[in-house]
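pinned: reference chain
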Amino acid sequence: MPVIKTYSEFINSQKEEIIDKNWPPILKALWFDAKNDWHAAHDLVDGSHHKNAKWVHAYLHRKEGDEWNAGYWYRQAGKPFPEVSLQEEHQQLVEFMLADFD
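pinned: its structure tokens
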């Protein structure tokens, strides 16, 4: 799998059947989420104490429709409850994680 640097490259990577094993769990979670595998994404961040994992965890519960649980995880991550669409937040998360991974 080629090195992913941009959100569009990340989205294009959805065509692959397997994920890059070198990616950190947080980025893998976002990849599985983009492939509509909420449970695999959640399993990768559930129980993590990393602030960025808590942010992804919050996003996943927001996507699930559980605003109360999402609010808890946004507070744990030190993030406000977003006023953007889920797609926009997903892009923000991926871009942030790609920059952090680089």
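why pinned: The mean pLDDT is 92. The longest helix spans residues 86-101.
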